[in-house]
Amino acid sequence: MEHYDLIVIGAGPGGYIAAERAGHAGKKVLLIEKDNLGGVCTNWGCIPTKSLLNSSKLYKKALHSEAYGVTAEKVSFSLKKAMAHKQDTIETLRKGIAFLMKSNKVDVIFAEAQVTSPKTVQADGKEFSFDNLFVASGSTAFVPPIPGADLPHVLTNEGILQIEKLPENLVVIGGGVIGVEFASFFSAVGVKVSVVEMMDEIIPLMDGDFSKALRKSLSKVDFHLKAKVTKIDASSVYFEKDGAETALPADTVLMAVGRRPLTLGLETIGVDVAPQGIRVDEQMRTNLPGIFAIGDVNGKSLLAHSASRMGEVAVNTILGQPDRMRYGAVPWAVYTDPEAAGCGLTEAQAQEQGYKVQSASVPMRANGRFLAELGKKEPGMCKVVVDEESGLLLGVHLLGVYSSEIIHSAAGMLEMELRVQDIKEIIFPHPSVSEIIKDALWAL
Amino acid sequence: MEHYDLIVIGAGPGGYIAAERAGHAGKKVLLIEKDNLGGVCTNWGCIPTKSLLNSSKLYKKALHSEAYGVTAEKVSFSLKKAMAHKQDTIETLRKGIAFLMKSNKVDVIFAEAQVTSPKTVQADGKEFSFDNLFVASGSTAFVPPIPGADLPHVLTNEGILQIEKLPENLVVIGGGVIGVEFASFFSAVGVKVSVVEMMDEIIPLMDGDFSKALRKSLSKVDFHLKAKVTKIDASSVYFEKDGAETALPADTVLMAVGRRPLTLGLETIGVDVAPQGIRVDEQMRTNLPGIFAIGDVNGKSLLAHSASRMGEVAVNTILGQPDRMRYGAVPWAVYTDPEAAGCGLTEAQAQEQGYKVQSASVPMRANGRFLAELGKKEPGMCKVVVDEESGLLLGVHLLGVYSSEIIHSAAGMLEMELRVQDIKEIIFPHPSVSEIIKDALWAL
Question: Does B385 lie in the same domain as B313?
Answer without folding.
Answer: no
